[in-house]
Design brief:
Keywords: Phosphoprotein, SH2 domain. GO terms for molecular function: protein kinase binding; signaling adaptor activity. It comes from Microcaecilia unicolor. It is built from ten helices and twelve strands. By secondary structure, the protein is α+β, with helices and mostly antiparallel strands. Among the domains are: about 140 residues, Pleckstrin-homology domain (PH domain)/Phosphotyrosine-binding domain (PTB) (PH-domain like); about 90 residues, SHC Adaptor Protein. The strands form two sheets. It has a seven-stranded antiparallel β-sheet, covered by helices on one side. A five-stranded antiparallel β-sheet has the order 8-9-10-11-12. Helix 2 packs parallel to helix 3. The termini are far apart.
């Protein structure tokens, strides 16, 4: 029995025990580092989001949680992006306390943000930097949470304002299309490196700003000596954004922001599109294997003694007249004829 198979019964038991202890559906789980305003050091927990509650475990094998955090009265959630370390921090503001949570990466922080806002606001956030599959999971979480609230009389009922927050009733919320294809979750330096290293992919990148609320546009001017420039894009109310220029420009939607840069430069700026897939199949290794196999099938001449004699007699003028050296030896007549023909070709 493999190690993976031996762990399956243990994982199933842990899952059912946690399900029995919490009596709530599991929506998302991962490691988190958590602290509050009273403590300076972070503590690492395995955290499960069940319903509108975070359950904290000392590790991912514990069956009983050590603490739980009710999010039903969440006041605010703010993600703090940083370029100083790979970890990302986000802040949960509750009526009685403020919690500081830290993840391994910005992607994990975005996932936590998405799932928490989905269950607390009963709507899938329309501005998420996630893959379509992750967005579909949040849509499923939203439906499950609505069913749970409807079936539990002690849970806060779904109000009219909450019903109208969901932008669509389709099975899939296309939040990815709201973010231009040239958006990348990278830092200022990483964006500059991408433009300098791959100029053929484009020269305009949209990226998050350091404050996690706004955006930045990084461009590489198509001149004889290309230079990198950065422009800040402030998020206003609703879906409006303002480009900080000498005369600020306010547009609706990030796609319009990108279009503005393209139109104002008359097409000199082009969105950076990363080509992740290769279009050329490298067959060099296959050709080498075929060549080796072909060589093995060729008839082998029994001239090894002659070659050895040539190598041993390096002092002799082999390059000048190799055939004359061995033509009088006790070789068979056929080999003599081959050597004489070789001499004629060399001359």
């Amino acid at each position: 029995m493999s190690v993976v198979e031996s762990h399956k019964p243990l994982l199933r038991r842990i899952f059912y025990e946690r399900q029995r202890n919490t009596s709530l559906p599991l929506y998302y789980e991962n490691f988190l580092w958590i602290t509050n305003s009273l403590h300076q050091e972070y503590e690492r927990y395995w955290v499960e989001l069940r319903g509108t509650t975070l359950f904290l475990y000392t590790n991912d094998r514990e069956e009983m949680y050590m603490k739980k955090i009710d999010l039903v009265s969440l006041v605010a959630l703010d993600v703090q992006h940083t370029t100083e370390r790979p970890c990302q921090q986000f802040i949960l503001t509750l009526p009685n306390e403020t919690l500081y949570l830290m993840t391994n990466s910005s992607e994990e922080a975005e996932e936590w943000k998405g799932f928490i806002l989905t269950v607390t606001e009963l709507s899938v956030p329309c501005r998420l930097l996630l893959l379509p599959g992750q967005t579909i999971k949040m849509k499923e979480t939203l439906e499950n949470e609505r069913v749970r609230r409807a079936s539990c009389p002690d849970v806060q009922p779904l109000g009219k304002a909450e019903e109208t927050e969901d932008p669509t009733n389709e099975d899939y919320i296309d939040v990815i299309s709201a973010v231009p294809s040239c958006f990348y979750h990278v830092t200022r330096k990483e964006a500059a490196d991408m433009l300098e290293n791959s100029p053929s992919n484009g020269n305009l990148i949209l990226r998050p700003c350091g404050d996690s609320k706004n955006y930045s546009v990084t461009i590489q001017e198509p001149l004889d000596s290309p230079s990198i420039k950065h422009y800040k894009v402030l998020r206003k109310g609703g879906d409006y954004y303002t480009i900080e220029l000498e005369k600020p420009v306010t547009l609706k939607g990030l796609d319009k922001v990108v279009e503005y840069f393209i139109s104002e430069t008359r097409g000199r700026l082009k969105p950076f599109i990363s080509h992740e897939y290769q279009t050329h199949l490298d067959t060099s290794l296959l050709e080498q294997e075929k060549r080796k196999a072909h060589i093995k099938t060729l008839p082998q001449m029994k001239v090894a003694p002659v070659v050895r004699s040539v190598l041993e007699g390096t002092a002799r003028p082999f390059r000048k007249n190799p055939a004359n050296i061995y033509v009088n030896t006790n070789l068979d007549q056929e080999l003599k004829n081959q050597l004489l023909k070789t001499q004629e070709k060399m001359n």
